[in-house]
Amino acid sequence: MQAHALRNEGTELHTPLKGSTLAAVLAEQLSTGSSEGRREDLLFIFAALQTAVKKIAHLLSRAGIEDLFGEATAAAGSAERDKAKKLDVVANEVLKLALEGTGRVSLMASEEDDEPVSVQSACDRDGSSYVAVFDPLDGSRNIDASIPTGTIFGLYPAATRGDPTDALQRGTQQIAAAYALYSSATMLVVSWGSGVHGFTLDTTLGEFVLTHPHIRIPQRGALMLCLNLSFIYSVNDARYFDWPEGLRRYIDDIRQGKGQNPKQYSARYICSLVADFHRTLLYGGVAMNPRSHLRLVYEANPLGFLAEQAGGRASDGKRRILDIQPEKLHQRLPLFLGSPDDIAELETYEDVQQIHNPGYTV
Fold first, then answer.
1. pTM score, two decimals?
2. How many domains are contained in the chain?
3. Among 138, 207, 276, 316, which one carries the catalytic annotation?
4. Lowest mean pLDDT among 60-64, 67-71, 89-93, 340-344
5. DSSP assignment of 20-77
6. Domain ends where: 156, 183, 210?
7. Residue range 264-268: average pLDDT?
8. 138 is catalytic
9. Is 137 a catalytic residue?
């Protein structure tokens, strides 16, 4: 496969040719610096992830036809989590079956399961095993309106095979992360620790092909609209009067061009975490939810890993996301993702976390 060297923060990376398949790019990226066993394991795991994402994308495209809209009959989960949609349950099973079939994943932790699930076949095998954490269908409350949704995925080494506490590793321990975006095109955006690559599903081939090599988030967010430079932020402005003072001041300042950047910021909000983050990754700015709403283990950590690999930052408003030690599987926290200069500026306002819930449903 043709490639050329790209020097990125002192590390020589190889940018593969656009149109290369995900498997080919993964094999080339891991050709140096990884053991043969690790390389083979990741090839198996990401082949399974691709298969699951294709299946979920197909199901989403036919959800209305096959009566997959609405909540599941017996909604899974506890009071700490959202009620499951029919497609939440189906997507969860698709991912679990695909990953179990690799024989490499000994523990799976999902948004749809109360506890991590041990995979005995992987626990018994020789060689390395891994912990997969995922939100099978992020933004599922938007399914019925055909608004973009996504799948979020993180991968860790397994310290003790099948031990549920292995799902509670810091984000810094991740060896790979990815998200799928189900929209006008189905994309799979991945990192194996050496940058971020975006792949688009070519439905004529049935393959994910490289369309966005080495994604780098802008130092400060900007979107070109009709030749006018527009800086963007993404948050639910309807909650403005419930926000803490620091967050209100930050939003007021950047909207009026009174922040560190003299340009005025505009709001762009989809209310689908993967979609809002994907736009932010490409155009820069900040995607945020100041409430203790998003889950550390299988939402914030994988997206935080991807943000940092693309040169951005991930914060809870006070500290780096990837440094936080999870205490429980479904632990929630505020989440701010985006351009490094924008996140750094936001943190100077200090009081940006909406810890108090005024009474509306999370």
1. 0.91
2. 2
3. 138
4. 67-71
5. -BHHHHHHHHTSSSS-HHHHHHHHHHHHHHHHHHHHHHHHHHTTTTTT--SB-TT--S
6. 183
7. 93
8. yes
9. yes
